[in-house]
Write a structure and sequence with these properties.
With 318 residues, this protein is mainly α. It has 15 helices and 8 strands.
């Protein structure tokens, strides 16, 4: 610390931890006493949030204060930077809280949920601590907080029996934003398929129902999955397909995408053919043979887009 003043040391420690500090951390890292902490609260330097938990006074509003305090309370003896160096930092924010922090779905995060590898009981109101296995691959940092990854969040929500409608919204956002792949989602949904009324271990069927419920077009889903694999052409196709859903298909952009990437072309053709009720053939087409189905499907898609636009114009004119 840069000052010999215990109060200044506590302020510096809290600032490094997002404005919050525990009395145990303060006593372990600085030479502050219980009486000095009380005087800091009385003078407004610190604000007491809960027993043994404080935040700096006159700090800017922290929209994640409840989550920060709950995570800090899991291990009040260890400072934040030491915990984040651990493979599992004494638990991470998870379930509905993780979905909210990741911007996935439309669940109500009215409580703070965390997952820890051992049983931990907190006296904080509105906090739920789940017990479960965790590894370094299961979490990431969001605004300085350890949060389960999108795929682990989906797995936790399915295991907790989250209603299908809300689970579908989380899966939809994770897939269309390219945060997870279809294969990953199928894998984590499979163990819970039977609990949701599907055949045992039928993760694919479970996912298809969720996607239908969330209203995600098959074409957008296929290209989003390719975009997740860092295919530039697929990302271009995704933008084109998104426009098509608004009735304004950019045929030039779509053609550019499918001609530059055989993977994007095949995925789009399979999705479009399925949507149009046409049989599909597997495998990538090359050369002159590839141009025929590509142009035919694109022309058909263009017709669909044009039809939507015309219908919209007729409706507006009524």
């Amino acid at each position: 610390m840069r000052s010999d003043s215990p109060a200044a040391q506590v302020v510096a420690l809290a600032a490094e931890q997002g404005g919050v500090v525990t009395s145990r951390q303060a006593r372990a890292v600085t030479s502050v006493s219980v009486q000095q902490l009380k005087r800091m609260v009385d003078s407004g330097v610190l604000e007491r949030l809960h027993h043994g938990l404080y935040r700096l006074g006159r700090m800017p509003e922290d929209v994640h204060l409840e989550e920060r305090v709950a995570w800090l309370a899991l291990d009040p003896d260890v400072v934040v930077w030491e915990r984040l160096d651990q493979p599992v930092p004494t638990g991470v924010l998870s379930h509905r809280t993780a979905a909210a922090l990741l911007g996935l779905g439309d669940l109500d995060a009215d409580v703070v949920e965390l997952t820890a590898t051992r049983r931990i009981r907190l006296s904080l109101p509105g906090v739920i601590v789940h017990r479960g296995a965790l590894s370094r691959e299961d979490w990431q940092l969001v605004d300085g907080l350890p949060v389960t990854t999108p795929i682990r969040t989906i797995a936790d929500l399915a295991a907790a029996g989250t209603d299908a409608g809300h689970l579908a919204s989380v899966v939809r956002d994770a897939l269309t934003r390219g945060l997870v792949t279809v294969a990953e989602v199928v894998a984590v949904l499979s163990p819970h398929a039977f609990d949701y009324g599907h055949r045992a271990l039928d993760g694919q069927g479970f996912l298809e129902v969720l996607i239908a419920q969330a209203g995600v077009p098959a074409t957008m889903l296929a290209v989003a999955d390719l975009a997740r694999r860092n295919t530039a052409a697929a990302a271009s196709a995704l933008a084109s397909v998104a426009a098509s859903e608004a009735g304004q298909l950019d045929v030039a952009a779509l053609m550019k995408a499918v001609t530059e990437s055989p993977q994007a072309r095949d995925a789009l053709m399979r999705s479009l053919a399925a949507a149009l009720g046409q049989p599909t053939t597997s495998g990538s087409h090359t050369g002159a043979d590839a141009s025929v189905p590509t142009h035919q499907a694109t022309d058909r898609a263009s017709t669909i887009g044009s039809g939507r636009t015309a219908r919209s114009a007729r409706t507006a004119g009524r």
